[in-house]
Amino acid sequence: MSFEFISSAENVAGQQQIWAAVIGVAGLVVLGYATMKGKSLAINLAGVALLAVGGFYLYQSWQISQTGGEWVIRISDQEISWQSPNQNIDPSFTLALGEIEYVDKSAKQSQSDPGNVYHIVVNDQSVIKLNNASGIDLDEFVQRLADTGIEVKSTGKYYQPSELRHK
């Protein structure tokens, strides 16, 4: 049983640029609406926040395009190898499957968000957050890990949706 994912930094940078444009335009629309209609400071701040997120995606795209190279991500019967072309955005790692205690999938931005955020918990209790900057389908990747016998569970330890936080 093995899994391999290869993605070029050029393709990922292009995806990041698209997200930057979409989110940036949304921010401009919100700011324009708030200005024209004299809306509250909160709506103006939402527009600024969207512009900031768009700017972050644009910056990340620039960083990735400067590096070049490829993400090469593999799961074999013995190990995971996650090689990234840019260590600042997505650190590389190699782990023997026996070093993995479990994968935590409790991290989610909100109940309505379709994407999960995953953490690999290693036997020494160190934690590796799986980064989706590579463009990999993290749900599929984690399912492939589960197919090797790695336990996947939701502990709420690394992130808990805002709807479930205690007030």
Describe this structure in words.
It is a single chain. The chain has 167 residues and is an alpha+beta fold. It folds into two domains: 9-67; 71-164, PH-domain like. The protein has three helices and eight strands, in the order βααββββββαβ. It has helices at residues 9-37, 41-67, 138-147; strands spanning 3-8, 70-75, 79-83, 93-96, 100-108, 116-122, 127-129, 152-153. It has a four-stranded antiparallel β-sheet with strand order 1-2-3-4. Strands 7-6-5-8 form a four-stranded mixed β-sheet. Helix 1 packs antiparallel against helix 2 (41-67). It is elongated, with a radius of gyration of 19 Å. 20% of the residues are buried. Residues 160-167 have low confidence and may be disordered.
Features:
single chain; 167 residues; alpha+beta; 2 domains; four-stranded antiparallel sheet; disordered C terminus
Strand order of the largest sheet: 1-2-3-4
Strand content: 25-35%
CATH class term of the largest domain: Mainly Beta
Q: Quickly give the structural class.
A: alpha+beta
Average predicted local confidence, pLDDT: 82
Distance between the termini: 45 Å
CATH superfamily of the largest domain: Pleckstrin-homology domain (PH domain)/Phosphotyrosine-binding domain (PTB)
Number of domains: 2
Sheet with the most strands, sense and barrel status: 4 strands, antiparallel
Number of strands: 8
What is Rg? 19 Å
What is the helix fraction of residues, given as a range? 25-40%
Low-confidence stretches: 160-167
Order of SSEs = EHHEEEEEEHE
Structural shape: elongated
CATH overall fold name of the largest domain: PH-domain like
